């Protein structure tokens, strides 16, 4: 049998991939025709593919490689932990040092009384935990009818049956029988696409007040929690108007609705603070974490839970958990990642150096004829492509057609930018330097210019 390594020709790797590998969120038939791009190694913010291209990864993988690629310290820690204790579980009244140390570190980093961690293997699993935990919490408090979780259209909370139901992606709900019962979705604070003639702040307030209307319609005695990303990521990096979050917090407080902040993208420095909740000025009862927790070097997620909720849950057995909850190798890697973020002042780098530098350059992209609004918080940004900035019009072509063309131009120019419909988004490694930001912006601008020319050629403008 052929040994499959980096040294095989790209076409051979692509053929084997097409024959046996089912890719997530992909039309695999189409991909098989085209051939997947084969990434062979990475260092810092740069990926290398099997053809030797050096690509600036402005998405940090899937929003996760916060400290950049190729950090030996994490490899060393993983190897050490694998030799010492590669696996043990945290069920049946046992524990181990990596899980203890990571939980204690997260309690120290998290705001307020978020001092308790339930580990999972991913963000999806952690949000599944949250669904069960908040419902069980209210049942334990003698209010079992409080079982509805309110979320938002176009939110992303994961891909499992539970977390996919929490999310508000209609394409996901259309497949596989989602959502599960007792999940309710309100509208998102996406002013560019849905704000009409309102000014952004008035619109933000109105969208937040939909939470209050939903609570009143569903009944306060039926609603367990509200979940949201501090800044919507996969929905297109939708930065809410400043009026939005304070109003949400007011409503959650008024009706005693638990607030779950899904920090899977925003956590661990991405918004210029340790957590997006701090940037947005909110006080969650639970935070979902994953991705930047280990900078993607090992699969790990979790829920950081308030003393109040953890105290109630502790009174009985919570019939929930995963084989890999608190996996020792993943926990050790996460801990080392947090040490690096802290000691190398990565959050400060985002807040004081790379963030302000990128913000200035990113916002200037709105001068491009194809770009409407340009939004950015810390190291997550988006631009809305439009044929008419004044009217915020959508393209006549099917939504996403232009975004896809732009993304393909980016790929050709060795830049990974993602498109969500006709919004282009970035979420680079947090350690990106100002010089690398210049390269990112230069490649993005070139790609926008080429996209603009192609749209004119094809009569799409
Ligand atoms: N929540 C948010 C906000 C996310 O962005 C994601 C992943 N993109 C998830 C949850 C799900 O995480 P995972 O893919 O690790 O299950």
From TrEMBL:
It holds the Pfam family Aminotran_3. Transmembrane segments: none annotated. The keyword Hydrolase does not apply. One of its GO terms (molecular function) is transaminase activity. Its cofactor is pyridoxal 5'-phosphate. Keywords: Aminotransferase, Pyridoxal phosphate, Transferase. NCBIfam families: PRK06105.1, PRK07480.1. This is Aspartate aminotransferase family protein. It comes from Tritonibacter scottomollicae (Epibacterium scottomollicae).
């Amino acid at each position: 049998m052929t040994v499959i390594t980096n040294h095989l020709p790209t076409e051979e790797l692509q053929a084997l991939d097409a024959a046996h590998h089912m890719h997530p969120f992909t039309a695999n038939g189409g991909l098989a025709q085209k051939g997947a791009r084969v990434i062979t190694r990475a260092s810092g913010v740069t990926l290398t593919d099997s053809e030797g291209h050096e690509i600036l990864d402005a998405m940090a993988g899937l929003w996760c490689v916060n400290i950049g690629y190729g950090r030996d310290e994490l490899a060393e820690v993983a190897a050490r932990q694998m030799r010492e204790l590669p696996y043990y579980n945290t069920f049946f009244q046992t524990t181990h040092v990596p899980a203890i140390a990571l939980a204690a570190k997260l309690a120290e980093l998290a705001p307020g009384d978020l001092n308790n961690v339930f580990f999972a293997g991913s963000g999806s699993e952690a949000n599944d935990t949250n669904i069960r935990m908040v419902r069980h919490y209210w049942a334990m408090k003698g209010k079992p009818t409080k079982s509805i979780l309110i979320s938002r259209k176009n939110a992303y909370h994961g891909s499992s049956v539970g977390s996919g139901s929490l999310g508000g992606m209609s394409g996901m709900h259309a497949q596989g029988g989602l959502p599960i019962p007792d999940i309710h979705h309100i509208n998102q604070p996406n002013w560019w696409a849905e704000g009409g003639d309102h000014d952004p702040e008035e619109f933000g307030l109105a969208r937040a007040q939909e939470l209050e209307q939903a609570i009143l319609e569903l009944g306060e005695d039926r609603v367990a929690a509200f979940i949201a990303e501090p800044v919507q990521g996969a929905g297109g990096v939708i930065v809410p108007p400043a009026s939005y979050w304070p109003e949400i917090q007011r409503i959650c407080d008024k009706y005693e609705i638990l607030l779950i902040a899904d920090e899977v993208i925003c956590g661990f420095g991405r918004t210029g603070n340790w957590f997006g909740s701090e940037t947005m000025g909110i006080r969650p009862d639970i935070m979902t974490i994953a991705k930047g927790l280990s900078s993607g070097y090992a699969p790990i997620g979790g829920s950081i839970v308030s003393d109040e909720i953890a105290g109630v849950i502790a009174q009985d057995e919570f019939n929930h958990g995963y084989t890999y909850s608190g996996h020792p190798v993943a926990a050790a890697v996460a801990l080392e990642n947090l040490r690096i973020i802290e000691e190398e002042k990565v959050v400060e780098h985002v807040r004081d150096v790379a963030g302000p530098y990128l913000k200035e350059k990113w916002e200037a992209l709105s001068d491009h004829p194809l770009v409407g609004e340009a939004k950015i918080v810390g190291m997550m940004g988006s631009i809305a492509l439009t044929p008419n900035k004044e009217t915020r019009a959508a393209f006549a072509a099917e939504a996403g057609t232009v975004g896809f063309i732009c993304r393909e131009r980016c790929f050709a120019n060795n830049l990974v930018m993602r498109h969500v419909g006709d919004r282009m988004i970035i979420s680079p490694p947090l350690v990106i330097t100002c010089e690398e930001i210049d390269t990112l912006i230069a490649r993005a601008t070139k790609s926008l210019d080429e996209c603009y020319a192609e749209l004119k050629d094809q009569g799409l403008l």
